[in-house]
Amino acid sequence: MRNSADRVLRLQAQLTVRDRLLLDWLADHKVLTTFQISRALFTSLDFAQRRLLKLHQLGLVDRFRPLRAGGGSYPWHYVLDQTGTECVAASRQQTPPRPGQTTLRKHRLATSRTLEHLLGVNQFFTDLAARARTHPPAQLQRWWSEQRCAEPGAFNTTLLSPIRPDGHGIFREGDRRVAFFAEFDTGTERPRVLLEKVNNYTIHTAMGGPAWPVLFWLPHTDQERALHQLLTGLPTPVPVATACRDSLPVGACAADAVWLVAGSTDGPRRLVDLADLGDPAPDVDPITDVAWPPHVTPRLTH
User: Fold this and answer.
1) For 215-237, what is each residue's pLDDT tens digit?
2) Segment holding 123, helix H or strand E
């Protein structure tokens, strides 16, 4: 235990604000690719790769590279290594996992059947982080994982909420802030399954949960069209908006005017414009909700 504590103490002077955020992200969201990390946190892919190699050499992160079915390989996928878990646990005043637990977690992630879905959700949020980084003073003020959303009382409901969003976030652009629930689909869920999720959000609001916009990030327009048809004439207390990855303009992300609101004849709206439809975004906790980029801290190099 002493050796573990000493190792964490020795590393503190070598970790930047950006390093600590990355470790927190990997603790909460499990796995991120080189390109997701680079776009969200760095201005240079080369510098990102060199920094990630350094963190890997320090034992803070580990990595794996799945093979592609048609040949070749995917980019490096980064996860927390044992020293990284100890640093995060120390910052959160938690007991770190044992080395065997960390190894088992890494193996499960590398072989998980839900890895594609998890990376898709993380792509949604790292794209928002990248937009915030390149368009100050925009900020991704909150990024909660599926596990954090599932915690009892996470959304001020007195009973266990029926919703299981893939993520929850708060995004600020200019003087506007929007809180939202994210639902990511790889293309495996039928429109009626998505409709059932909308019904669960209706129950959620009846239990006292916030009526924030529910964002369905879909793979293709046929699925989007079918979901809108099912929602036609159906009164819902929560705003529902959809966007399709196969029809996004080049360079666009979830922050842009890509959202079609169910039951509306308006054109696509920006993410922050959806704030007009739902409950206001709550105040963020400066300790547990780490905004990115951290405009109040000194400018990061590179």
Assistant:
1) 999 999 999 999 999 999 888 89
2) helix 115-134
